[in-house]
């Protein structure tokens, strides 16, 4: 996993952003959260993470998006929670799952059919409309295609190795015990979850199922697409300038329920 500082000015707080599959810092380095350092994490071919970052700051505010919700949960479940405030956006802690994530066959079909052309179709589905897609293509990640295809494969392999493929029934007792140990070890509930009704990557109803342990007021339903520039401007910049009362009021204003 890569950890890239966008702002590194020895502030007492850190905004830690776990981006999605195939991402890099390019679409997100335009944001400048106030009075905080800012780090972006991406490339989940390996789970390696330098946890010393948690010792450096008084407060860690976490935003995790898409596949970063799962990658972030693996890290956050292993560190003290007292100084962490975390938000999930359009992602699941069970990312390849028929009930709580991307359905298994959909994920497999995406991998099997992944070409540079199908990747562009995937990026188009991430965006709400053609204008949003054109804007995203101006700041699209600059990663090698073979690298991101390998990332998609390794995410699937690591997830099934740790937690199992619910469509495969050939587990023995020892394997089941290992899966259960991993579920308990890496279980993590985000403080807030934002779910976009126009998400065409993760089914919104699956995300609601995944985050059903949260209090209802902490699950915020919006009209966002999977990638939504206005939501990222809020989550990675504007919200950190709001007094707490203004923040809570804003949450009510974007909830579509």
TrEMBL record:
Cross-referenced Gene3D superfamilies: alpha/beta hydrolase
InterPro entries noted in UniProt: AB_hydrolase_fold, BioG
The protein, known as: DUF452 family protein
Natural source organism: Bacteroides clarus YIT 12056
Phylogenetic lineage: Bacteria, Pseudomonadati, Bacteroidota, Bacteroidia, Bacteroidales
């Amino acid at each position: 996993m890569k950890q890239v500082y966008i702002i590194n000015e020895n502030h007492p707080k850190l905004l830690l952003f776990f981006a999605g599959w195939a991402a890099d810092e390019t679409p997100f380095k335009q944001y400048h959260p106030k009075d905080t350092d800012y780090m972006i994490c991406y490339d989940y071919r390996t789970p390696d993470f330098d946890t010393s970052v948690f010792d450096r700051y008084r407060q860690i505010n976490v935003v995790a998006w898409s596949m970063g919700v799962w990658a972030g949960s693996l890290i956050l479940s292993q560190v003290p929670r007292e100084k962490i405030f975390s938000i999930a956006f359009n992602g699941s802690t069970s990312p390849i799952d028929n009930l709580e994530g991307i359905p298994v066959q959909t994920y497999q079909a995406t991998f099997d059919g992944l070409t540079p052309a199908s990747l562009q179709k995937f990026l188009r589905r991430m965006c709400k409309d053609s204008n949003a897609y054109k804007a995203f293509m101006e700041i699209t990640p600059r990663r090698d295609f073979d690298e991101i295809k390998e990332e998609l494969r390794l995410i699937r392999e690591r997830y099934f190795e740790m937690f199992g493929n619910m469509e495969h029934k050939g587990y023995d007792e020892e394997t089941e015990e290992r899966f259960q140990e991993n579920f308990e070890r890496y279980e993590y509930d985000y403080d807030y979850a934002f779910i976009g009704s126009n998400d065409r990557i993760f089914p919104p109803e699956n995300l609601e199922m995944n985050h059903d342990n949260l209090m209802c007021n902490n699950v915020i339903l919006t009209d966002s697409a999977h990638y939504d520039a206005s939501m990222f401007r809020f989550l990675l910049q504007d919200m950190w300038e709001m007094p707490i009362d203004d923040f809570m009021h804003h949450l009510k204003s974007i909830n579509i329920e």
